[in-house]
Amino acid sequence: MPNFSNQIRASSSLMKRLKQRMTNPAAIMQATRHFTTLEGHRPTIVHKRSLDILHDPWFNKGTAFSMTERDRLDLRGLLPPNVMTSEQQIQRFTADLKRLEVQARDGPSDPYALAKWRILNRLHDRNETMYYQVLIANIEEYAPIVYTPTVGLVCQNYSGLFRRPRGMYFSAEDRGEMMSMVYNWPAEQVDMIVVTDGSRILGLGDLGVQGIGIAIGKLDLYVAAAGINPQRVLPVMIDVGTNNEKLLKDPLYLGLQEHRLDGDEYIAVIDEFMEAVFTRWPHVIVQFEDFQSKWAFKLLQRYRNTYRMFNDDVQGTAGVAIAGLLGAVRAQGRPMIDFPKQKIVVAGAGSAGIGVLNAARKTMARMLGNNESAFESAGRQFWVVDAKGLITEERENIDPEALPFARKVKEASRQGLREGASLAEVVREVKPDVLLGLSAVGGLFSKEVLEALKGSTSTRPAIFAMSNPTKNAECTPEDAFSIVGDNILFASGSPFQDVDLGNGHIGHCNQGNNMYLFPGIGLGTLLSGSRIISDGMLQAAAECLAAYMAEDEVLNGIIYPSTSRIRDITKEVAAAVVKEAIKEDLAEGYREMDARELQKLSQEEIVEYVKNNMWSPDYPTLMATMESLIGLVNRIQKACTVLGDYGGGDNAFSSLWEALPSVAVVGGQSSGKSSVLESIVGRDFLPRGSGIVTRRPLVLQLHKTEDGSQEYAEFLHLPKRRFSDFVVNLTLIDLPGLTKVAVEGQPESIVQDIEMMVRAYVEKPNCIILAISPANQDIATSDAIKLAREVDPSGDRTFGVLTKLDLMDKGTNALDVLEGRSYRLQHPWVGIVNRSQADINKNVDMIVARRKEREYFATNPDYGHLSNKMGSEYLAKLLSKHLESAIRARIPSITSLINKTIDELESEMEHLGRPIAVDAGAQLYTILELCRAFDKVFKEHLDGGRPGGDRIYGVFDNQLPAALRKLPFDRHLSLQNVRRVVSEADGYQPHLIAPEQGYRRLIESSLNYFRGPAEASADAVGPLCLKRACQKVNCRNSVPMLLRSVRALIFNLKQELRRFPSLQAALAAAANEALERFREESKKTVLRLVDMESSYLTASTGSG
């Protein structure tokens, strides 16, 4: 009986919730249905329907929702009846875009590019998948809209363009709160963060909080170019104020209207942000963007060896520039190894300029032997000019970052130059191979400078006008080609049109955009699992980009690829980064691909691995998996388990367990049944390999947790191994393969033993049978079909599955079976194409396998007309629909049984008292309720309203005073004992000051004398009141549990406080304030004790 009572207590609240869910079966089937889709490469549970789906940009498909989805998601009637393909949607949007560009302009001063941005942003707000479809399909046209140069206009006008939040804002006013703030972001996993403080947006200066636009634009390119999942990216603005006086006076400005933090205060804000995001998402990658030069290098050096982060302005720009510089060497018809011979004049010594100089010097030094003399030699190839002219060692207050590139005075003199020489003078005297602009000063390469470059000693001088946006470019390609000559190389940071040179010749304008590298760096770091982003990984990315162009393209003046090839470029760059991370032993792996598996991959396999992990904006198929019903079934199973009901036997509740459905695959050995089960789940989990033969059922059971932790599934025969990367619904059973004869080493009874084992499962009325038959074998001899017809003659529970369709003899097919002309079943046959053993050995993703399966049916001439009713995905839909009907039919009987059980439980609970609640809030409420009841009962006793008051008065009037009188205070507080305690406090070494430790011991030991009588009094009075108080709140027999709950509550509170440092500090301050109030009284007491011992202290220390 005690055991049964414990079971009832553990399951009572569960059963009540079941009763509530069972009250309205229709509501169960409709109100909270969830749908599973493939979000990129992983399943996502959708908890919305009807208009909520249409208002969610991630799940909204607009007119592309199929009629089946409209029915299942309650969308019928909420959309026009015509179902459109994604291609038709894009065509319609593009046509509207061309028409609306003019209408979307906000007056004549609003440029067309900004109008396009407005329209694209509205699409992003309502249909995210389609937005990325449009962006990827038209990346050449729209990359300049979502990124530079238009993003500069967006940032300048962001306060007026802001409509809905996108990203997170951390401000100087949030100091102490960031650790808790990061938990406001809904995504459980974030792979990529782009963060800015708005201090140097492109070449536009301090734009404050409006700089969030650059972070949003960058992440759009991470998604479009690198295939980073858009649900796992986070744009961040750190608002530490602004020094832009116009924004400080603008009443519509959205940010903090105060001057920027500086020094240690600024660093403290960034430190807190970094600690917060890496605490919640330890594997996130953070890209710093458009921080002013003053902080860009300092923050990079501060964090790069601790966190997975990089600075795109310093390292990304440098990588793209290095790739262009190496391409320029190739365009001269020389090998890249000649790069250290190039003379380079650099205009601009900000974060981007210094970043390029450092990277170029390292590249040259590596080619020259990578030693100290190589670095010194490489440094002599650069001439750096800033706003004050040529930088030499004579420069006062020189930036420490620029110091390594300052020319020696004698070297400059030999060249005919001096400190502060103008850019035109430097170009004229140095005669460089490359003129590199990173100054953010539009038109800096004036006619005088370009004329001077005509004297270059190079056969093909290169001009890099890399500053963004377009208006900040150092020169235009037209000026460059017309002044310097047709044979130059030209590259820019912002896009320009090619120049018609006449006579059929084209002056190519190469866009050296950072988007060629930063998406690949981020993706490669993510997939390698590298702990940091090393210089070697960045160098590998740059060299990969430099080698990407074909030789004939480079000789023709094309050193950067077209942005239309951006996904392929990113794939190659990411593969190079992964390979370098492996080489440097930094790779730790990603998801199933651990470091050891990564090391085994060839170059081609690394590229394939990267490709398979790139997200694509395909509309997911929303498949009903009856999530609410699955939760219900699992709660019923949990209740059955608590009650000791495991099905079968004479258990009083066995009918409840037996009513729950399961899915079992039945087939001969090597029929592909395990593969079918895995395809339905969408995940590898079953054992396989040469010589593996299942000899007992493998049961995979979902465990739904109710404490907010992640769900998991496990085999019943492997209870300690949890699978948590996917959700398996209901019970799935992979039964042993049926066999006709025993093989060598097996007992003769094996054939019958296996059949009886299989029968024990499939004979149960709650078992749905997947009868697996290989299409390349005679179905007439199929043991699976034969057994299914015996145990399920009506065919209600049987689904026929034809596997290995792709392995049938040439010229044959299975159309007679699939179209129902032979071996007809009540449910239609479904054809499956199993994964090949080669794909399994290569760990080909299940999503890729499903895609191949769809392509097979769609392109096969025999099965093309049936393609929408074939494949593992369709089989999963069919099973879901059948399970829904099966559970719906069982609801009335389950409801009746649960109601009866609950009535019995409630009757038992009246005797036992209800248990203490599980969650902390309910526990606290119970404790407070108990305290109030105790107080009320105690007063009733004392006031005579309840018997027992005399007993309480007797305890405190007689029993307690008598006990106190017996305490030996006279002996304990005697002068001799006080002297002993005080002198021993410091090891018999008394000091002139009062030994507080001794007095503390004296007081504590005195208080201990009170403990015994006080506890005895409480024991005498407490039970009298507590018993009645527990009866009042109905929690008898729960006091020990209550006390444990109090301790747990305090512990949990301490854990929670870690997330709220400000609250923690406030509590500490309040505690200190409370202690301060007692300080004076304590001080007086101590002084009195000192006075008592003054003679002793004086006498004892006088001799010292």
UniProtKB/TrEMBL annotation:
Its main location: mitochondrion. Its cofactor is Mn(2+); Mg(2+). Involved in the regulation of sugars and amino acids metabolisms during the night period. NCBIfam families: PRK13529.1 (NF010052). This is Malic enzyme. Belongs to the malic enzymes family. The keyword GTP-binding does not apply. The lineage of its organism: Eukaryota, Viridiplantae, Streptophyta, Embryophyta, Tracheophyta. SUPFAM superfamilies: Aminoacid dehydrogenase-like, N-terminal domain, NAD(P)-binding Rossmann-fold domains, P-loop containing nucleoside triphosphate hydrolases. Residues 657-892 form the Dynamin-type G domain. GO terms for biological process: malate metabolic process. Keywords: Metal-binding, Mitochondrion, NAD, Oxidoreductase, Transit peptide. It is found in: Mitochondrion.
